């Protein structure tokens, strides 16, 4: 907004007639001058007030966390400054997402500087993302509202604070939704990732990058358990294909620019503050409402199975990946030596059939589900996943400890309290 003087400066030209303070003997002439002075005074006061308002962020601006101004910068710096030196400062993309929230909280809790970035898209209820944002704010994590495709914004973040690490979790998630909105997968998981890497490769010093790939890259691979050495050239969904593309893109940026990059293949992550588009979440909702749920089974009539991994285990894996990462080697957009490139499975190593997930939910919720067995639709789902985690165990000390029943109990406890408090809020 402009703070330039009024566009009609002619109005301020002195009058040809003597100014009002000489004209006490001509009262009729003095009245219009006096009125003008009052008007100018009012205009001046209005202008001063206007400039003051423009320089202060509005309440809505604060809420939206839009970049710009001293207030924004102060918030960014406060959030991103580690508690003690030497600490790391992590830019967490997708910070209002499920994994992003948990990782940001864990980093902040141990004293790291954390800066969140999230575009609060409408893939699922933004109210849940806003609720996560509130939790983060209370813990001192500020989320900048913006998109990973916004180059200028990313540059501004790197200019404002010294970001040592990027935890890249912003993505278009969901396997089945890719049939409905393929474009969003390309925009976030490919274009957005490339944009982020472009900015990261140019800053000096370059940050370390840890990012979320997916178990879905194993696609139609039937060799179990899935090892990082197994083939990943048969994706079954566009989501999987974009994550696989991300792995190839990451390799390119590591190879050309010396960025240190670690990809983590998450296996069906679940837990409190989870994603409503995932089966364990909407099964809970539908069982509670007495609605039917569809349980997919394979052509040979076996229940599909997933290596469900509890969020706390995933968070430990993410932090270990950040802590064990070596520095990037490039500077000024040029590689100065070989940089680290890693890829790890983060799973639970104990696949559970979806039918078993449902019986755990029934037990924990104490409600019988209305089940319908359906053939596995051909919309991106794979029949099973099973992680071999020996590499992550060796390099990251990764050791999942939460079994599905324990994790589901924690999820259900959160689900019930979250929904009862949201109901209270809407009814009050
Ligand atoms: O590991 C990953 O990389 C991915 O994990 C997750 O995908 P999935 O493992 O497919 O989880 P999710 O949809 O919860 O389905 C769970 C099971 O329920 C079955 N399923 C599903 C729906 C239904 O109506 N019935 C059913 O049986 C279904 O066939 C499946 O067997 C993330 O969503 C994804 O973003 C990505 O991160």
From TrEMBL:
Task: Describe the reaction catalysed, as an equation.
Answer: UDP-alpha-D-glucuronate = UDP-alpha-D-galacturonate
Q: Which UniProt keywords apply?
A: Isomerase, Membrane, NAD, Transmembrane, Transmembrane helix
Q: Which SUPFAM superfamilies match?
A: NAD(P)-binding Rossmann-fold domains
EC top class, as a word: isomerase
Ligase among keywords: no
GO CC: one term?
Golgi cisterna membrane
Q: What is its EC number?
A: 5.1.3.6
- Judging by the UniProt lineage, the source's domain of life is Eukaryota
Which subcellular locations apply to this protein? Golgi apparatus, Golgi stack membrane
- Annotated NAD-dependent epimerase/dehydratase domain ranges read 90-326
Which Pfam families does this chain map to? Epimerase (PF01370)
| Keyword Isomerase attached | yes
GO MF terms held by the record: UDP-glucuronate 4-epimerase activity
Looking at the UniProt entry, the stretches that span the membrane are: 37-55
Q: How does it sit in the membrane?
A: Multi-pass membrane protein
Q: How does it assemble?
A: Homodimer.
Q: Which family does it belong to?
A: Belongs to the NAD(P)-dependent epimerase/dehydratase family.
Q: What is this protein called?
A: UDP-glucuronate 4-epimerase
- Protein's organism: Erythroxylum novogranatense
């Amino acid at each position: 907004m402009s703070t330039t003087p009024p566009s009609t400066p002619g109005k301020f030209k002195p009058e040809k007639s003597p100014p009002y303070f000489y004209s006490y003997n001509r009262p009729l002439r003095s009245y219009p001058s006096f009125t003008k002075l009052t008007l100018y005074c009012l205009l001046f006061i209005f202008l001063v007030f206007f400039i003051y308002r423009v320089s202060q962020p509005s309440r809505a601006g604060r809420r939206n966390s839009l970049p710009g101004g001293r207030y924004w910068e102060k918030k960014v710096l406060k959030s991103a400054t580690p508690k003690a030196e030497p600490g790391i400062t992590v830019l967490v993309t997708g910070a209002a997402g499920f994994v992003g929230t948990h990782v940001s909280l864990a980093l902040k809790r141990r004293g790291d500087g954390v800066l969140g970035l999230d575009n609060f898209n409408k893939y699922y209820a933004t109210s849940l993302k806003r609720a996560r944002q509130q939790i983060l704010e209370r813990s001192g994590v500020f989320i900048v509202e913006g998109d990973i495709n916004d180059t200028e914004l990313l540059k501004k973040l790197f200019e404002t604070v010294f970001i040592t690490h990027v935890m890249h979790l912003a993505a278009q998630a969901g396997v089945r939704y890719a049939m409905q909105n393929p474009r969003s997968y390309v925009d976030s998981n490919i274009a957005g990732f490339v944009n982020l890497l472009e900015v990261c490769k140019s800053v000096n010093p370059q940050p370390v990058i840890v990012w979320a790939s997916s178990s879905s890259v194993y696609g139609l691979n039937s060799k179990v358990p899935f090892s990082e050495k197994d083939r990943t050239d048969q994706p079954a969904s566009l989501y999987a294909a974009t994550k696989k593309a991300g792995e190839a893109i990451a390799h390119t940026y590591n190879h050309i620019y010396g960025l240190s990059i670690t990809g983590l293949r998450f296996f069906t992550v679940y837990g409190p503050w989870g994603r409503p588009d995932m089966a364990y979440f909407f099964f809970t909702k539908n069982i509670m409402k007495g609605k039917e749920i569809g349980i997919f089974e394979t052509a040979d009539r076996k229940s599909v199975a997933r290596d469900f991994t509890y969020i706390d285990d995933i968070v430990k894996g993410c932090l270990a990946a950040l802590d064990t990462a070596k520095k990037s080697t490039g500077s000024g957009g040029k590689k100065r030596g070989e940089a680290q490139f890693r890829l790890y499975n983060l799973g639970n190593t104990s696949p559970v059939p979806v039918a078993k997930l449902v019986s755990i939910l029934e037990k924990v919720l104490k409600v019988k589900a209305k089940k319908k067995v359906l053939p596995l639709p051909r919309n991106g789902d794979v029949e099973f996943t099973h992680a071999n985690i020996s590499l992550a165990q060796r390099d990251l000390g990764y050791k999942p400890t939460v079994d599905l029943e324990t994790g589901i109990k924690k999820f259900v406890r959160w689900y019930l309290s979250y929904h009862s408090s949201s109901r209270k809020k809407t009814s009050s």
